[in-house]
Design brief:
Structural class: mainly alpha
Number of domains: 1
Number of helices: 4
Number of strands: 0
Oligomer: single chain
Largest sheet: none
Distance between the termini: 31 Å
Order of helices and strands: HHHH
Radius of gyration: 20 Å
């Protein structure tokens, strides 16, 4: 799991770097008027969307998503564990729905292409499918690791 997390972090970082280069090219071309690059806006948007979804998956692997635990921290360990299971199940259901319906939306856009790039718009929507699937893998791995450990409050005798 650690390897996949690192791969996601590097992948999102690389996409972000390429997006910055493309955006710089776009701004330079627009304000200098020396050359015209029509595809930069669409490519930058596509790279940004993929970087966001891969970054969200990497954050889930790292445990970096926002978590409001001021109520959960005040309840008993047994009830806390039940709340965590409920939250994880809810997130898993949401990710499964994103995968299912995101794929349907992506398939509905398979014949549509970007205006300046001969690339299907489907790839924009597939970022949500891939990102959600990776988050589901990270969630399952995190749950497996966490619940294999001893419950809080159990000590060794």
């Amino acid at each position: 799991m650690r390897r996949l997390q690192q791969l996601l972090e590097w992948g999102a970082g690389l996409l972000l770097f390429v997006m910055v280069v493309v955006a710089f090219l776009q701004v330079t071309a627009r304000y200098t008027g020396l050359f015209f690059v029509p595809w930069t806006e669409e490519v930058a948007r596509l790279l940004f969307i993929w970087a966001v979804w891969l970054g969200a998956a990497a954050a889930l692997f790292r445990g970096g998503h926002i978590r409001f635990d001021f109520v959960v921290a005040r309840i008993s360990p047994r009830l806390r564990r039940a709340c965590e299971v409920g939250v994880h199940l809810g997130v898993a259901v949401l990710l499964i729905l994103l995968i299912r319906y995101g794929y349907e939306v992506a398939q509905s856009q398979a014949d549509t292409t970007f205006l300046t790039v001969n690339l299907s718009v489907q790839y924009t929507y597939l970022s949500a499918v891939v990102g959600s699937a990776l988050m589901l893998v990270g969630l399952a791995g995190g749950v497996w690791t966490r619940f294999r450990q001893k419950t809080p409050g159990q000590g060794t005798a």
